[in-house]
Amino acid sequence: LRRLELLTAEEAAQVWAVSSLPEQVRAVVDVLASKGSHTSQSLRSFIETSNSQLSLHITAYGRQPRKHLESLQSSCGNGLEPGALQRLTNLLLVEGLTDIQQKEHDILQVETTKGLPNVSKSIPLEKLFLPLSKVSIPPRISVTVGVAGIGKSTLVKLFVRTWAKGEINRDILFVLPLTFRELNTYEKLSAERLICLAFPHVTEPGCISAGAARTLLILDGLDEFKTPLDFSNAVVCTDPKKEIQVDNLITNIIRGNLLQEASVWVTSRPAAARQIPGGLVDRMTEIQGFGAAEMKDFLDQMFLDNRDLSSQVLKHIRANRSLRVLCTVPGFCWISGSSIAYFLKHCSDQSQDAAVVPRTLSEIYSYYFKMALSGDWLEKPREALRIEQAANTSKKLVGSLGRLAFYGLLRRKHVFYEQDMKAYGIDLSLLHGSLSTRLLLKEDMQTATAYYFSHLTVQEFLAALYYCTAAKRALFDLFTESGMSWPRLGFLNHFKSAVQRALQAEDRHLDIFVRFLSGLLSPQVNKLLSGWLLVKDEHSGFRSQAIGVLQGCLNTEHAISSRSVNTMHCLQEIQHTDIAKAVEEAMRNESLAGMLTPTNCSALAYLLQVSDVCLEETNLSNCLNYNVCKSLLSQLLFCRSLRLDNNQFKDDVMELLGSVLSVKDCQIQRLR
């Protein structure tokens, strides 16, 4: 109260306006404001160190916080389309990461779960940092997960902007947003310097302080951090002024050794979020993808001036179950929508045979790259470059970008800086127009400029293009950047190497890369990119041998895993559909009995994800035995409605099914 007496009338009114103060204190502030209290002492905030702990104490709402609010509103207001944000105002409240989220590639996560999270509880954005009940306390460490392109950074911007306008969480007096993309540029930081980074209006390190007022530190994009967090071996630090390695600083903040009075919000792709021990996380949430209505609204927003085109694009997406599932992710929906629209715009210029609607991932991305490299964008029409000129420019740029993308992918690196661009010989002057806005994005930060691909799959497609082109002349294993390896001659040997590396990778980070690599061998993709990024019929002689390599991977496993399913996706990309078509036809005719060999079981597991035959109900009547049922167990988890009658099951199979129903990931709702 003594501090409140020092406030001017204007300052007292501001304290009242922005703070959730107890009613008694508000009454005092009202009285002071009406009497016009004056003071010659300027308001200031300070960092107070007590028992070697840094705690944030904010005494009043002065000029520095006002500047901070204005800055946040300005920086977080860009790129937020009101119509597309409704989905982000409700998050899914989850109890932790599922096995699939911890082990699988983002695209495989969406495909396996069919874009439908197995959770019913949700939490409004405005209650994200509030107690769940009257007897609980606010969470200190909150983690929000979502696959690449789902909108994690957009969610952070939405929250910060809404908070800065005073519409939510008025009990939080300071919000300090930081990205791991920016933290990558520092080797060492202290807790004090970290605060100054997030709150640049501070003139001295010791200016933010704490009592009952809350401060929220936001750390966006853990999956982009250059150093894995090691909570087991991190050096303990309790001194807020001591500069330590940035990864150690983050672990100490999360553990509560530093900034223990502040709430911390981390966003991440699911696989990277597992670095944080579950025991330290007070609240975990997940961003949900598009529903059917939201997907339509999103496409309508993309093609505001052409609703006919929007309807045609949506029709094509809905006609392909696999594409429809992936388009629940906004980032992927935007790429697919752009590609299909480009196809529809130009299909009248093609012969009837060539005008095939893009269905596979490789076809979608071939159109997307062709569109970007020609400078022909539907939403911003402009004169296209001559094809010959565009091809020559793009080959050089895509070659160097592809090498950056490939070796970045091997190192799990998705953010690059100027030194990386120079090291890979990338001419930054060529990054202009649609190349800079659609393929490789640029972000200017306080200490450096960051470059990153517009979506994870864009990096993976570029990496596959580089590998496909380099493999024909490479003498050594391309996976060893130094070139020090046993000689590896011929495209097929390099293709085998890539497939084996993908199968052996524990975190599955090469699965989509191998899909794209397979797709680049398909006749349709070669026709699309001939003269642009591929030489006509360059690898056509290897296609049948590559198919043999992929089919050989289907007979090696007793249990049908996501690796087998991804191999089936690779066969679809390369346009070898015979196995899947035969099994799908048998499913339609209910004649699967006796034909479920290991290869056909892999095809069946693939069809459970993509076939419309399994859309309403998965009918596996009269075709399963113990061994087949056991091999398919991990894939049956995600069938909403499962029909298994007339299989003559005995107790051992019933025990297997019982174990499935009790698994955390299980989505079975109806079982016959």
UniProtKB/TrEMBL annotation:
UniProt KW Repeat keyword: yes
PROSITE patterns per the UniProt record, alphabetical: NACHT (PS50837)
Domain NACHT per the UniProt entry, residue ranges: 140-272
Swiss-Prot/TrEMBL keywords: ATP-binding, Cytoplasm, Leucine-rich repeat, Nucleotide-binding, Repeat
SMART domains xref list: FISNA
GO cellular component: cytoplasm
GO molecular function, one term: ATP binding
Record's signal peptide: none
Cell location: Cytoplasm
Record-linked Pfam families: NACHT, NLRC4_HD2, WHD_NOD2
InterPro entries for the chain: LRR_dom_sf, NACHT-assoc, NACHT_NTPase, NLR, NLRP_HD2, NOD1/2_WH, P-loop_NTPase
PANTHER family noted in UniProt: NACHT, LRR AND CARD DOMAINS-CONTAINING (PTHR24106)
Protein's UniProt name: NLRC3 protein
